[in-house]
Specification:
- The complex is a heterodimer.
- By secondary structure, chain A is an alpha/beta fold.
- Chain A has a single domain, classed as Rossmann fold.
- Chain A is built from seven helices and six strands; from the N terminus they run βαββααβαβαβαα.
- In chain A, strands 2-3-1-4-5-6 form a six-stranded mixed β-sheet.
- In chain A, strand 2 and strand 3 form a beta hairpin.
- The longest helix of chain A is centred in the middle third of the chain and has 16 residues.
- Chain B has three domains: 151 residues, Beta-Lactamase, CATH 3.30.450.70; 128 residues, no CATH class; 133 residues, OmpA-like domain (60s Ribosomal Protein L30, Chain: A).
- Chain B starts with a helix and ends in a 5-residue tail after the last strand.
- The chains are: A alpha/beta, B alpha+beta.
- Chains A and B meet through strand 1, strand 2, strand 3 and helix 3 of A and helix 5, helix 8, helix 18, strand 15 and strand 17 of B.
- The complex binds guanosine-5'-diphosphate and magnesium ion.
- The site of magnesium ion (MG) has 4 residues of chain A, from helix 1 and strand 3.
Chain lengths: 171, 587
């Protein structure tokens, strides 16, 4: 069976959404700072046993204020990847606001939370008390780095398993 | 006495005969009178309340919070309701506030996505596309018009069935020999584009949602039903036949596959059976074939540069009229404007024309022409000759070309000085390769390659970095730029100006310059927000005054945002964020 699923990248400005997609889709990371406004769409296939799942990744581009202008961006999403910058605690607050926006906009979706830029040990500003403050299942929280690739595959794989029906996941 | 008489009439009746008085009143005046009387009393009440309402509210409000508690849900739901009822009105009100930002974001999203869409659609076109493209180029006309010359009025080349909710592709198909690249992405992009436009410019009626986009040489037509949307990629014009066909197909799919559409969960085979319906929609219409026309002095015509006369063009009423005429020519099927020239009131137009094209005297803009002396030079479309490429090649490579006939075909003679890279490009030029049997380079000299090449892209990025690092600090509680930052601001302005210049040369294009104002932790949120806006506006004004395009500047008041670890004098600042994107490659 071949499945297709819509996945949305969400999170504050410059937390690493685009970099994570690039890492996941093209296996690269670029320091080059690059922002546009709009939506970028990419895809990648994930294998689950004999089945393959095609993830259509919607990456919203732009600044925080634009995120809430685009509820239609979320429409029909099966999976949400919520990204927080581990070096900027304020992005956790944005994430909390986004969670409630998402809850009010769509239903029937699964979410994973990525504390990104985990490679920046020196600047890491996210004590356990903060990461635990989210009302999200522990298994669905990942400490990632788009730069080193840490946990990026794992996070997408986990989300894929969450959004697929049980007969596809456990074989 | 008149006075006492009057008083008497107005005196209310005695209690004992009140009943009969009322009876008489209703008999004489009917129930209408009763109603008026009641209304009247009610009106008095209303007047009385109205007189004291404000004070009553005020008083109550001083006592407790109950009014606010009672009113706010009412106000909220009435705002909700009015937004729902007249979205566009609200959009109008909000628009001036978020307008510039939204407009930019929409424009950007569109150009970026339409660009990548075009790219995807085009990649799908195989060898045939190259042949067509080359032939169109040979005629020096846009690809779309080539369709007409090819006697094809229109052709539906790709059909997509898209799940509306998720934007996922249900199934797709394409005309023979046309592989479709990444239909899944095209499907999602189309959904995003239509959503985006739908959201940003709330349309009055549902039926008016965007349904046609021009993407390069394609027209994309989208018909949305409740569960799925059908999209056609059409080469040529969107003919009424196609409009009907797409509506029909959309309805057909909804009635046949209603269950499958409703329960679609991402399984790619679920709608496979709809594909034959889609295939039926790959229609095309041929024009009646026409005998080929005699061929005129085309070589002469083609040497006239298309761009040469643009400089005469200045805006005036006459120019607008001329512009309309030219526009009508360029849009009309079967016409190709080679050049035109407007001198005072004399307009000269030089066009290529297919024999079956509608006569130009029937053009709307020409029928009621006044104040312009129009001369049209029409040349019926000729057959192809290598000569006609020479001027185009000259323009492309900046040297002279000639051609001579050989047994096996035509030889291209290049004359002049070209860089190594350009020579290689010329040798590999697919168009040169397909027209000429060989290139004669005996009259060609190799130019010295310029050693010093400037990496404009890198310079652009470096400059952006510099701009991002500039901090403009302010004095406490004011819009006054701190002494230490007076130099920074002028540096910033010149950097941004330089960036604007570099934009032309670099592969990037600036979408927006965001001026972010901040205030320190002291003071109320409200005051800080205002202060931060004032600071950002001041900087924005200064930038504008220094030649930064105002339409790309967006002010963003952030109030106080910093962590306590940032010192107060550094919290009072303005930062600049430059948003930019890759320029679409030339197609
Ligand atoms: N060190 C480090 N930098 C990152 C990482 N992910 C993103 N970045 C950088 O953070 C900035 C913002 O990234 P971007 O992907 O554009 O964020 P977006 O706005 O959420 O899409 C860029 O300069 C990236 O190079 C990461 O995992 N580690
Ligand atoms: Mg991004």
């Amino acid at each position: 069976m071949r499945l297709s699923k819509k996945i949305c990248m969400v999170g504050a400005f410059a937390v690493g959404k685009t970099s994570l997609v690039r890492r996941f889709v093209d296996s690269i990371f670029s320091e080059k700072y690059h922002t546009t406004i709009g939506v970028k769409i990419d895809k990648r296939q994930v294998e689950l046993h004999e089945n393959s799942v095609q993830l259509i990744l919607w990456d919203i581009e732009g600044v925080d204020i634009f995120t809430d202008l685009n509820a239609s961006y979320l429409r029909g999403a099966s999976g949400i990847i919520l990204v927080i910058d581990g070096t900027r605690p304020a992005t956790l607050d944005t994430a909390k606001e986004l969670i409630s926006l998402i809850e009010n906009t769509i239903s029937d979706y699964r979410i994973v939370v990525l504390f990104n830029k985990h490679d920046l040990e020196q600047e890491w500003a996210m004590p356990a008390a903060l990461t635990d403050s989210l009302n999200i299942d522990k298994d669905s929280i990942f400490f990632t780095s788009a730069k080193t690739g840490e946990n990026v595959e794992e996070a997408f794989q986990h989300l894929t398993e969450l959004i697929c029906p049980p007969e596809v996941v456990d074989k | 006495m008149i006075g006492s008489n009057a008083v008497k009439t107005d005196t209310p009746p005695e209690p004992d005969n009140a009943g009969s008085y009322q009876e008489l009143r209703s008999l004489l005046l009917g129930s209408e009178y009763e109603n008026i009387l009641k209304e009247r009393l009610k009106q008095d009440d209303i007047d009385r309340i109205a007189e004291n309402l404000t004070e009553a509210f005020e008083k109550r409000n001083q006592n407790d919070n109950s009014l606010i508690e009672k009113l706010s849900p009412m106000i909220e739901s009435s705002i909700d309701l009015s937004i729902r009822n007249s979205r566009s009105k609200f959009a109008d009100i909000i628009y001036p506030i978020i307008g510039p930002a939204v407009r930019k974001s929409v424009a950007n999203a569109l150009t970026e996505m339409v660009h990548s869409l075009n790219h995807l659609l085009k990649q799908g076109f195989s060898a045939q596309a190259i042949v067509w493209r080359y032939k169109a180029w040979r005629l020096g006309m846009p690809y779309g018009q080539y369709a007409f010359i090819q006697n094809i009025q229109y052709r539906v080349e790709q059909v997509f069935l898209i799940h509306r909710e998720t934007g996922l592709l249900l199934t797709s198909c394409s005309a023979e020999n046309i592989p479709v690249k990444d239909p899944e992405l095209i499907s999602a992009m189309l959904t995003a584009i239509t959503d985006f436009i739908g959201d940003s410019f709330e349309q009055e009626s549902q039926s008016e949602t965007l349904n046609a986009i021009q993407v390069g040489e394609f027209n994309l037509l989208i018909e949305s039903g409740p569960y799925a949307a059908v999209a056609f990629a059409i080469r040529g014009s969107v003919h009424q036949d196609i409009n009907e066909r797409i509506q029909e197909l959309c309805e057909q799919i909804h009635s046949q596959f209603y269950q499958e559409l409703r329960s679609f969960s991402g399984n790619e085979n679920e709608l496979e059976e709809a594909r034959p319906f889609l295939e039926d929609a790959l229609i095309e219409k041929q024009k009646e074939s026409t005998s080929s026309s005699p061929w005129f002095a085309i070589a002469l015509l083609a040497t006239i540069s298309i761009y040469g006369v643009m400089s005469y063009y200045q805006s005036s009423v006459t120019n607008q009229k001329a512009e309309r005429i030219i526009e009508e020519f360029s849009k009309a099927p079967g016409y190709q404007v080679l050049n035109y020239k407007l001198e005072s009131n004399d307009l000269f137009i030089n066009v290529l024309k297919t024999p079956e094209a509608k006569p130009s005297k029937d053009f709307e803009s020409i029928k009621n022409i006044r104040g312009i002396n129009l001369t049209i030079k029409e040349t019926n479309l000729p057959r192809l000759e290598p000569n006609i490429f020479l001027s185009f090649l000259s323009e492309k490579y900046g040297i002279d070309f000639d051609t001579s006939k050989e047994q096996s075909g035509y030889e291209l003679i290049a004359k002049g000085e070209l860089s190594k890279r350009k020579i290689q490009q010329l040798e590999e030029d697919p168009i040169v390769k397909s027209i000429f049997t060989n290139i004669n380079e005996s009259q060609l000299t190799v130019a010295q390659e310029k050693v010093l090449t400037v990496d404009y892209g890198q310079n652009f990025l470096n400059l952006v970095n510099k701009v991002h690092q500039s901090q403009i600090y302010f004095d406490v509680g004011t819009q006054q730029i701190a002494q230490e930052s007076s130099e920074t601001i002028s540096e910033l302005a010149s950097n941004l100006k330089e960036l604007q210049k570099l934009e032309q040369l670099s592969p990037y294009s600036i979408s927006q310059i965001t001026v972010m104002g901040l205030a320190d932790k002291n003071g109320t949120d409200e005051a800080n927000l205002k202060l931060s806006r004032d600071r950002a506006s001041l900087v924005a004004e200064m930038l504008e005054a220094n030649g930064i395009r105002s339409e790309i500047i967006v002010i963003w008041a952030l109030g106080d945002r910093d962590l306590p670890s940032v010192s107060l004098e550094h919290q009072r600042r303005v930062n600049i964020q430059v948003l930019f994107h890759d320029k679409p490659e030339l197609l």
